């Protein structure tokens, strides 16, 4: 069964407020967005009607999400909230609703379903590498070339 798993951008875009579908998020994301529509207690209503469920991903899914993020080179760009959303999607085999490129790249590399909100979504999926524009060498990470000292840049290797 598919589940909609919402990151913070989905809440800011109003996705759960204009939908009758059930949604999941993690407590880390909920803590980040709980101020939204506080005057109307819209989040409270979603929780009371069980249309919004807060669930923590299991340890295995979280480990898999971190590994996948490291493999794609997106780990440094992801917050704890982002990792928790990817992990929950792994565990529930759901659909992530997000406009975040790093979340989308990791999830697509894992074969997970992603739906963008206010953008067209990502078209290129791949792995990030750090490279030195000075001596033209690739490096697994870092901000400065260990060989010549030039600031490293990142590029996406598609595929």
UniProtKB/TrEMBL annotation:
<dbReference type="InterPro" id="IPR033411">
    <property type="entry name" value="Ribonuclease_PIN"/>
</dbReference>
<dbReference type="GO" id="GO:0004521">
    <property type="term" value="F:RNA endonuclease activity"/>
</dbReference>
<dbReference type="GO" id="GO:0046872">
    <property type="term" value="F:metal ion binding"/>
</dbReference>
<keyword id="KW-0378">Hydrolase</keyword>
<dbReference type="GO" id="GO:0030490">
    <property type="term" value="P:maturation of SSU-rRNA"/>
</dbReference>
<dbReference type="GO" id="GO:0030688">
    <property type="term" value="C:preribosome, small subunit precursor"/>
</dbReference>
<dbReference type="InterPro" id="IPR029060">
    <property type="entry name" value="PIN-like_dom_sf"/>
</dbReference>
<comment type="function">
    <text>Toxic component of a type II toxin-antitoxin (TA) system. Processes pre-16S-rRNA at its 3' end (the D-site) to yield the mature 3' end.</text>
</comment>
<dbReference type="Pfam" id="PF17146">
    <property type="entry name" value="PIN_6"/>
</dbReference>
<keyword id="KW-1277">Toxin-antitoxin system</keyword>
<keyword id="KW-0479">Metal-binding</keyword>
<dbReference type="GO" id="GO:0016787">
    <property type="term" value="F:hydrolase activity"/>
</dbReference>
<feature type="domain" description="Ribonuclease PIN">
    <location>
        <begin position="5"/>
        <end position="92"/>
    </location>
</feature>
<protein>
    <recommendedName>
        <fullName>Endoribonuclease Nob1</fullName>
    </recommendedName>
</protein>
<comment type="similarity">
    <text>Belongs to the NOB1 family.</text>
</comment>
<keyword id="KW-0540">Nuclease</keyword>
<dbReference type="InterPro" id="IPR039907">
    <property type="entry name" value="NOB1"/>
</dbReference>
<dbReference type="GO" id="GO:0005737">
    <property type="term" value="C:cytoplasm"/>
</dbReference>
């Amino acid at each position: 069964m598919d589940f909609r798993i919402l990151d913070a951008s989905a809440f800011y875009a109003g996705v759960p407020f204009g939908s009758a579908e059930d949604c999941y998020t993690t407590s880390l994301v909920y803590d980040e967005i709980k101020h939204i529509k506080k005057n109307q207690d819209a989040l409270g209503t979603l929780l009371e009607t069980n249309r919004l469920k807060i669930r923590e991903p299991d340890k295995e899914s979280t480990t898999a999400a971190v590994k996948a993020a490291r493999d794609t080179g997106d780990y440094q760009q992801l917050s704890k909230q982002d990792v928790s959303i990817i992990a929950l999607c792994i565990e529930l085999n759901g659909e992530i609703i997000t406009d975040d490129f790093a979340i989308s790249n990791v999830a697509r590399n894992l074969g997970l379903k992603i739906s963008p909100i206010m953008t067209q979504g990502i078209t290129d999926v791949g792995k990030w590498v750090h490279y030195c524009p000075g001596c033209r060498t690739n490096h697994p990470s870092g901000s400065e070339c260990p060989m010549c000292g030039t600031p490293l840049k990142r590029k996406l290797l598609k595929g």
